[in-house]
Amino acid sequence: MSQPLAPICVIGAGTMGRGIAQVALASGHPVHLVDPDEAQLDAARSDITARLSRKDPAAPAQVEARLLTLTDLAQAPVDARTVAIEAILEHLDVKQAVLRRAAEHFGPTCVLATNTSSLSVTAIAAGTPDPSRVVGMHFFNPVPVMKLVEVVRGLQTADEVVDTVAELAVRWGKSVAHVRSVPGFIVNRVARAFYGESLRLVEERAATAETIDELMRSAGGFRMGPFELMDLIGNDVNFAVTQSVWTSYHYDPRFAPSLIQSELIAAGRFGRKTGRGFYEYGESAERPLPLAAEVKAEASASSTPAVMHGSDEQLEALLIRSGLEFGRAKSDTPRIEFVGLGSVMVTRGRSAREESARRSEPVILLDRCLDPATATALALASTDAALTDAVVALLDRARIHAFPVADTPGLVLARVLSMIANEAWETAHHGVATPDDIDTAMRLGTNYPMGPFAWNARWSTGRVLELLDALWSSYHDPRYRASQALRAAVPTTSFDGLG
Questions:
Q1: Closest CA relative to residue 480, chosen from 408, 372, 382
Q2: pTM strictly above 0.85
Q3: 45, 311, 415, 427: least surrounded by Cβ within 10 Å?
């Protein structure tokens, strides 16, 4: 006869706590839900029962039999196999006190898990009788829906404790990303550039928030753009996480908060919950639309001879999607030449003005996209009106909306995603997590279309490094310093051979 499943003691009956309790109950565990507020416990029981009943008519009886709600941890049945998971306020001393009480109550063999999203697991563990029994078990909201759990190892966490909670998470239908305890773990560290670099582009007046959001969705395949996502999360919450990571990494410029976001917070524009953030919300609110380029000269795209120089997957896909006939020529610099007008290139991190000066001809720069076969929008910057008309017409034939942006180094998607990839390389370089765990975490914890190492491979490590080095050359800002691991992964060569 198999041993009954270990009891799960969830401390805190708020949104996260009741979500954790729900997935534990759905997997057959006895659950003890602890919260000093009886009204909160009653609401949690009703919530859990209603959600489980949608899939299983027998759920109310199962909840009644296996969910015990308690106002005091001391009332919880003692079982040495108990896994205690706290989901309470993000205050170090409070978490330490709760887990210390749990350790004293359940005994020396219980597992103590913290759902912290921002505090050091090592620091939390230091306030307990046996730090080796403490582990991070970072769920994502809503817990029953989100598939990721970051299993966070503190400095003294025992291997068997890590194994226990990882196996538990898998039993609950979750995917596990293993991570060493550092500020932000994987997701909140690597994702900072998604917001921070997008905000930097708005600060530079390179593009509007609505244009960047559109490009992230239509060229990058993201479900939401950074500005609509910040409004959904709450600008106050998003800013607080950014500030916490920034200060925890000793004010590293890679994580610096944005003055634009701090001004929104000062104005009370937190996002959806206050009716206004980067956008306005409510019945009469209208989202501003990004302005795509007008198609002025459709004939010019088909009447001007085009030549594909070198090899570039994105440029070739554009030509094929447009149905335009084109010639081929060997070249070290991948580009589409419109004979007599100029060339079209995919950004390498320089401005269109720089590329034009290097080539002594008009140049249009296209932003990168994640999937050239499905992208429906691209940013571009130009040095010539006639060439712009031809390229906008070409994009239109390929069913791609062209969005002119300021002639800024790295443009939009290529710049933001390269910064995210760079942070992923740095995270792996420091031994925080493996590349596979990082990709898993970013896909499942933030709903990215693919992990940063996956898009790094799609674009090529050399191209990502080239773009970052060009940003460094333009700005001389340490936020653009390339990870040593990224640089080491690129064969020694001169990128300036690219033109």
A1: 408
A2: yes
A3: 311
Rounded CA gap, 210 and 223, in Å? 14
Q: Would you name the residues annotated as active-site residues?
A: 117, 138, 150, 188
Residue 63 structure tokens: 């909840």
Strand, coil or helix: what is 149? strand
Tokens of 338: 């419109």
Those residues whose C-beta lies under 8 Å from the C-beta of residue 385, and which sit 6 or more positions away, are: none
What DSSP assignment string belongs to 252-321? Answer: -GGGPPPHHHHHHHHTT--BGGGTBSSSB-STT--PPPP-PPP---HHHHHHS-EEEES--HHHHHHHHH
Contact in structure between 269 and 276 (CB atoms under 8 Å) = yes
Calpha distance 432→114 (Å, rounded): 18
Query: What is the identity of the amino acid at 436?
Result: D
Percent of the chain with pLDDT over 70: 97
Cβ atoms of 390 and 300 within 8 Å: the answer is yes
d(CA 238, CA 241): 5
Question: pLDDT tier at 393 (50, 70, 90 boundaries)?
Answer: very high
Cis peptide before 142 (omega within 30 of 0): yes
In contact, 48 and 21? CB cutoff 8 Å: yes
Alpha helices, DSSP H, located in 369-412 = 385-397
How many angstroms separate the CA atoms of 375 and 134, rounded? 45
State residue 155's pLDDT score. 97
Going through 49-163 in order, the beta strands assigned E by DSSP cover 67-70, 83-86, 111-114, 134-139, 148-153
- Using CA atoms, how far apart are residues 214 and 233, in angstroms rounded to an integer? 18
- pLDDT given at position 297: 56
The Cα 297–Cα 459 span in angstroms is: 31
The CA distance from 162 to 427, in Å, is 20
**Counting every residue, how long is the chain?**
499
Q: What is the pLDDT of residues 112-144, one digit of tens each?
A: 999 998 899 999 999 999 999 999 999 999 999
How far is 357 from 32, CA to CA, in rounded Å? 69
Q: Are 256 and 262 in contact (CB under 8 A)?
A: no
Asked if 393 contacts 418 with a C-beta cutoff of 8 angstroms, the reply is no
* Distance from C-alpha of 483 to C-alpha of 428, rounded to nearest angstrom: 10
Q: What values do phi and psi take at 329, rounded to 5?
A: -150, 145
The H or E element spanning position 382 is strand 377-382
- Distance of alpha carbon 228 from alpha carbon 280, whole angstroms: 10
Mind listing the pLDDT tens digit for each residue in 144-165?
A: 999 999 999 999 999 999 999 9
How far is residue 215 from each of residues 29, 37, 222, measured CA to CA in Å? 45, 45, 9
DSSP 407: -
